[in-house]
Structure formats: structure tokens, C-alpha cells
Amino acid sequence: MAEKEEGKKADGEELVEEEKRDDGRVKLSVYWAYIKAASVPLFLLVIFFFALFPATGMLTSYWLVYWAEDRLGWTQYEYVSIYAIIAGGSIFTVFLRQIIRTKIAVKAAKKMHEDMLASVAGAPLSFFHHNPPGRILNRFSGDLFQVDVMLPEVLQGFLDSAMVCASAVAL
């Protein structure tokens, strides 16, 4: 009896399939799925806070001009008090933004993890015959890393850049 090769059935058909991966850009549908999993209203709220932060920075700059030129004729204490309020508002804005951003990331990751697990658990038995457990685990954990770590970072970078550009245009 002839020995069969590793990874092949006796009739020569491949038992383990070659892994298929997409390369290139992330599709907009992936970002949209992430936003829907996180909650669209929460995402819009975080966009508001991303926009509010550069606005508080511009307000600080304008206030410093008023202060330097003493346009209102106030005391130094009054100028400093208003400046401190604006700075505190800016810090509070970043704090709220990060809390909401974290809530979005956790909510989206949980939903997408549940969906991925249901998809793998509901796969036909042939899927497990053609894909070794190590490959399934590596792919699953790699995709979760992208959803848990990379996607929130990319979205934050995009929103930060977009708001800086928008504030530059607004000036």
C-alpha cells in the first residue's frame, strides 16, 4: 500500500487548502461594519468631541490675543481665570473623547468577536477538514488584533488629521 503524502487524500485531492488572503487597502465596508458595531450615534458623538478639541485650541489662541492686547481692560486675574476655564474645557473635552472612543472600541470589538466566533462555530465540517486548527486560531487572533488595536488607532489618526485640516480651513 502506497503511503499518502502529508496533506493529501488517497486519491490525490488536497486535504488542506491554501490560505486565501486579501492584500491592499481596507475596504470602506470594513470601517462601516466597525462603526455600525460600535453604534452610529456614539461614533457621531466622538466626531463632535474630535471637532471640539481644535476649536478649544483656537479659542485659547484668540483669548491670548485679547489678553496680550488688553482689549477688555480686565485685571490679570480675570484674564488668567478665563484662560484656565478654556484650558480646563479643552482637557475635559479630550477626557470625554477618550472615554467615548474607548467605549466605541470595546463595544465594536465585542460585537465583531461574537460575529466572528458565530461564523467559525457555524462553519460546515468541511471547513475544519480543509483548515488546520493552528491556521484558524492564527487568523482569528490576527483579525481580532486588527479590530481591537489597529482599527481604533487608524480611526483616531484619521479623525485627528481631518479635524486639524478642517480647523486650518476654518481660519
What are the key terms here?
0% strand, disordered N terminus, 171 residues, mainly alpha
What can you tell me about this protein's structure?
There is one protein chain. Helices cover 76% and strands 0% of the residues. With 171 residues, the protein is mainly alpha-helical. The longest helix is centred in the middle third of the chain and has 46 residues, at 76-121. The radius of gyration is 26 Å and the shape is elongated. Helix 1 packs across helix 3.
Using DSSP, what is the number of strands?
0
Strand and helix order: HHHHH
Average pLDDT value? 85
| General shape | elongated
| Multimeric organization | single chain
Supply the number of helical segments. Answer: 5
Record the SSE blueprint.
Elements: H1 28-38, H2 40-68, H3 76-121, H4 125-130, H5 133-170
Brief account:
This protein has 171 residues and is mainly alpha-helical. It has helices spanning 28-38, 40-68, 76-121, 125-130, 133-170.
